[in-house]
Each structure stands twice: as structure tokens, then as C-alpha cells.
Amino acid sequence: ATIHDQKPQRGEGGELHQTASGSTPVLTTAQGGPVSDDQNSLKIGARGPTVLEDFHFREKIFHFDHERIPERVVHARGYGAHGYFETYESLAKYTRADIFQRAGEKTPAFVRFSTVAGNKGSADLARDVRGFAVKLYTREGNWDIVGNNIPVFFIQDAIKFPDLIHAAKAEPNSDFPQAQTAHDNFWDFISLTPESMHMIMWVMSDRAIPRSLRFMEGFGVHTFRLLNAKDESTFVKFLWKPKLGLQSVAWNEAVKINGADPDFHRRDLWDAIHAGNFPEWELQLQLFDQAFADSFDFDILDPTKLIPEEVLPPIAVGRLVLDRMPDNFFAETEQVAFMTQNVPPGVDFSNDPLLQGRNFSYLDTQIKRLGSTNFTHIPINAPKCPFHNFQQDGHMAMRNPVGRANYQPNSWDEGPRESPQKGFRSFAEVEAGPKARLRSETFADHYSQARQFYISQDPVEQGHIAAALTFELSKVQTPVIRERVVSHLLNIDDGLAGKVADALGLKAMPKPADAAVPTRGDLPASDALSILKN
Ligand code: HEM
Predict the structure, then answer these.
(1) Please, how many CA atoms are within 13 Å of residue 63, restricted to the half-sphere of its CB?
(2) More confidently predicted of 524 and 501
(3) 287, 226 Cβ separation under 8 angstroms
(4) Smallest CA separation from ligand 1 atom 41, residue
(5) Which helix (H) or strand (E) holds 133?
(6) Catalytic site residue 359?
């Protein structure tokens, strides 16, 4: 922007007025009415009351009063950028998704990075999971890969999500502590939820305090399916690998940076993109079939497990480049609505119970957050391909069916029609079983992969995990909660449990937590992998 050097004129009360002249547009109300004076409300006499008739004043204040919308119930603090996804080679063998048919094809993209637990005004370097949500505006509609920078999750069933988030965010009576501070509720919930142990190892590791959003991996977490033109299914995991590599800061650095510059991550992304240093990620896929899935001790539907990259090397299928900041933070980054249910034909879900729940939750929360079922009319959420349907009306409707037909089938040669060939088709998996609230016994091993992750870390990184656990648990006031966490650590690594117990000054070592499946010597040494260290 250029500096406006017009000399302001003084009004009768000494206030400064800048008036329109030359190419400067005239200030108007939202209704387009020109405004004569934006410094003084309409009064009876210079020192008299303001009159209700002042429509300009009323409109301006009313609009301001309504500026805030609810922040996201999770992932409230985030920062986004535009860019594109470029396909390397055709993947027609695996999927009929249009985005993967042609080498060199570029698809517009919008990405929002976020922290999970902190509110909208919290600090960037909190110890937390980072959201990594990608919206791909494909020729077959929007495809959202709503992932995190950690490949597994805390819980196995979406019904536990409200409990997890309640325990992680502020307590209802005190409204503190915030995101990065350990507290009894969070560790109480975790200690009673052993399935969270693998994720806890990642969250206590350096992964949870990235140096920059540009140095972070992303993961779709769940197992999805790809379906080819014959509707043949291949399981898939989505991974984003940063071209710059993976880097974190140490906890004492994070604490200092948060104090000096709580906007450190967003500033870094803003500066990099404005300087033309466009961050880039490669999309990699882990592809496997049912027989391969069946060969694991764990269940590929369990979101607390990952498939080690050494066991199943990912293949690179494209790159994501972020090259433009939004023009307006609120319009784009705040109003963008990602949802796991947005998949193009050729991509399908698995029965992962966390994914199934997410497919319900995002649409629901966004209707509330953005205030209307018509949130897809907001430009950042609208598809960039042609789209037609008979949805109509509702709050803030920007588009309605054109012409007479707003239903189908109809006898008028109007309106869109369904397409069995082009349309989305689900994989025809055969399902049967008792209707009951169940958890599969194949979900029962909560410690093996936690241990694999821990032993994959080098001694310095292992020291950071022990220090993080010690720091967090030292904030927990209730001894039994500390002991319960240590009892889980005993099922992961004796050395780690010992270090934490000593540092906390536990009088006696607790017994290892009950494990539903054996936790020692159950994996061949070759499987004790250095997971995800590349
Ligand atoms: C928001 C990831 C589990 C409900 C988000 C966002 C990400 C994300 C990245 C931020 C999107 C944005 O930038 O706007 C994940 C991952 C999960 C997970 C990777 C597990 C693997 C769940 C579950 C639920 C859930 C189980 C509920 C059943 C929500 C809600 C929002 C959200 C309600 C706020 C959305 C909005 O207001 O726009 N999640 N999430 N998430 N997530 Fe999840």
C-alpha cells in the first residue's frame, strides 16, 4: 500500500477528517449509501444526545458487535496458505480419482496448520499436536486430507473425543490451565486410557514442538481406500514429507520463543512465502492389500497404530507447494471448513471407528461455527469445478436452483442428473455382526508401538521424552495419577519408567499396568524398528 499523504482537515471539535478526492473512493454504508462524516455521530446540539436515527452509526456499531464467530472447538489457532498440488505420474492402476490420472497436473490447494488444544490467542510453540489440513480443489470436487503432524492418535473410537478434549483443555471451574501446561485432568484421563500410550510417546517427544510449520511432516492417520475404475480396492495411508526435512526446538527454547514471540510459526510462514521461499511437501502413499493388512499383529483400522515405513516403504506421488498467503485471514483461514468426508470418487473410507465418527463431526460443527448450512457458498469452501444440485434456501443463500426444477426425477429437461459412471461409489465391503457397543480384540495391544517409537529415538531424544514426562507429571498434584502413568511406562521401557519415577521422587515403583496382551518379547528384534526417522 502507498502512504496516503493528504493533509487532513480539522473539524469544529478539532477532530481530523480525510475526505475523498481524485481516485480515492467515497466511504459508503453496507447498503452503498455515501457517508459525509465518519468522525461524529448525529447529535442534538454539539454536546447533546446521539439520535437513534443515525443509521450510519447504528450499522457500523451493529456490524462490529457481530464480528466474532465461535472459534473452532479444537484446532482453534491456525494459519493457512494457498498453493497447488502437482501429480507426478498416473495412479490409474490404483484409483480412478481424477487428480491422479495425469502426470504434471496441477490442482489448487489450501492448507491450514494448527495447534489442537490452545484457544485462538494461544502461543505457537505449545507442546501439542499440529493439525495439517489440506483442501485440494479437484475437478471432481473438494478433497480434504484432514491430518496431523503425528501419524497416530490418542483414542480408538470417536465416542471418546469429547472426553479427550475436555480433559486437555481448560478445567470447567477454573478455566485454566491452558494448552501447554500439564494438569491433573489431562493425565488422569490419559492414565485411564492406555490406548493413548503410543500417541503420548510422540507428544512427549520433540515432534510436538516443531521449529517451523515448514519443517513438519503430515499424516492422514487413518487407513483409507483407493478404488480403481473396476472398483478394486487398495488400502492407503497418506503422508506429507517436508522438502526442508524435519526440525524441532528444545523445550527451553520453545518457552523462551513463546514469551518473546507467540506468533513465531505464523510469522515464519508469512515471511518465507513473501520472500519467495515456497515451502514444499511430497505426498507419499503407503499402499497395501487385505493379505498384507492381515499379516500384522495390529489392526490397520486402529488409529493408534502406524505401519512402519521400513516395513512398507511409501511411494511419492506428487508435491504440494505453498506460494501465496491469503488476502484476508478471516475470510480464508478462519472460515475454511475441512472435513474428512470430502473425498473424490476413487478414494473411500475404511471402518476405522475414529474416522467414521469424524465423518459425522466436521459437517455438524461447521454448520454451528459458520452459522449456516450454506457455508459452502463462502468462496474458500466452494468447489472450483462445476457443481449442480437442488439444495436451496437457508441462511445466507448465495445460490439457488436456476429455473423451474428443484427436484428430480423430473419431466422438465432441466437440472442436473446422477451419473453411475462418474459419481462416487463406495467399496462394496460385506459387513455382518451383532449390533453392540464393541471394540475389536485386535485393538488391544497398547504398548508395542509405543515401545518401538521410544527405542527408535536416539539417546538425546529419549532424554527429551523423559524430561517432558517428568515436567508434565511434576505439575500433577494427585500422586495416584503420577503412579498410574509410570505403571504404563513400565510396559513401554523400564529405563524410561525408572528415570521418570526417580525424577518425580516416587517412593516405590508401581506395578506395571495390566496389559490386555503380552507386552514383552512379543516382537521379533527386526521389528523393533527405527520408525519414521528418515
Ligand atoms: C478440527 C485433525 C480427530 C473433531 C480438526 C483440524 C484438524 C483435525 C487438522 C483443524 C482443521 C482446520 O484447520 O480447520 C484431526 C485428526 C484426528 C482428529 C488427525 C484423528 C486422527 C477428531 C475426532 C473428532 C474431531 C475423533 C470428533 C469425533 C474435530 C472438530 C474440529 C476438528 C469438531 C473443528 C472443525 C472446525 O470447526 O472447522 N481436526 N482430528 N477430530 N476436529 Fe479433528
Answers:
(1) 9
(2) 501
(3) yes
(4) 358
(5) strand 130-138
(6) no
Decide if 378 contacts 390 (C-beta within 8 A): no
3-state percent helix, strand, coil for the chain, nearest multiple of 5: 30, 15, 55
- Segment 226-237 shows an average pLDDT of 98
Which residues are CB-neighbours of 370 under 8 A, at least 6 positions away? 69, 335, 337, 378
**What mean pLDDT comes out for the span 169-179?**
76
CB 349 within 8 A of CB 356: yes
Ligand 1 neighbours (beta carbon < 6 A) = 72-75, 78, 112, 114, 131, 133, 146-148, 153, 158, 161, 221, 303, 336-338, 354, 357-358, 361-362, 365-366, 369
What is the grid cell recorded at 392?
A: 436451496
Please report which helix (H) or strand (E) contains residue 9, including its range. strand 9-10
Relative to beta strand 280-288, strand 233-242 is: antiparallel
pLDDT (mean) for 149-172: 96
Burial 111-134 (b: 16+ CB within 10 A, else e): bbbbbbbbeeebbbbbbbbbbbbb
Judge residue 530's burial from the number of C-beta atoms within 10 Å of its C-beta, 0-12 exposed, 13-18 middle, 19 or more buried: middle
Helices and strands in the chain, H and E counts: 12, 12
Q: Is the peptide bond before 409 cis (omega within 30 degrees of 0)?
A: yes
Q: Which three cell numbers stand for residue 179?
A: 494448552
CA nearest neighbour of 145 among 222, 249, 226: 222
The answer to ipTM > 0.85 is: yes
pLDDT of residue 352: 98
> What cell numbers appear for 466 in the block?
523423559
- Please check whether residue 141 is in contact with residue 225, taking contact to mean a CB–CB distance below 8 angstroms: no
Contacts 24+ apart (CB under 8 A), 112-115: 112/78, 112/79, 112/80, 112/333, 112/336, 112/338, 113/78, 113/79, 113/80, 113/213, 113/216, 113/265, 113/269, 114/72, 114/75, 114/76, 114/77, 114/78, 114/79, 115/75, 115/77, 115/78, 115/179
| Spacing, Cα 169 to ligand 1 middle (Å) | 15
Q: Which amino acid is at 31?
A: Q
- Residue of 75, 120, 301 with the most ligand 1 atoms within 8 Å of its CB, for mutation: 75
CA 509, distance to chain mean position in Å, is: 38
Say how far apart CA 195 and CA 299 lie, in whole Å.
13
Active site residue 148: yes
The reply to whether omega before 177 is within 30° of 0 (cis) is yes
For the segment 235-244, the average pLDDT, to the nearest whole number, is 98
Residue 62 predicted with pLDDT over 60: yes
Rounded-to-integer distance, Cα 463 and Cα 467, Å: 6
Give the residue, by CA position, lying nearest to ligand 1 atom 26: 158
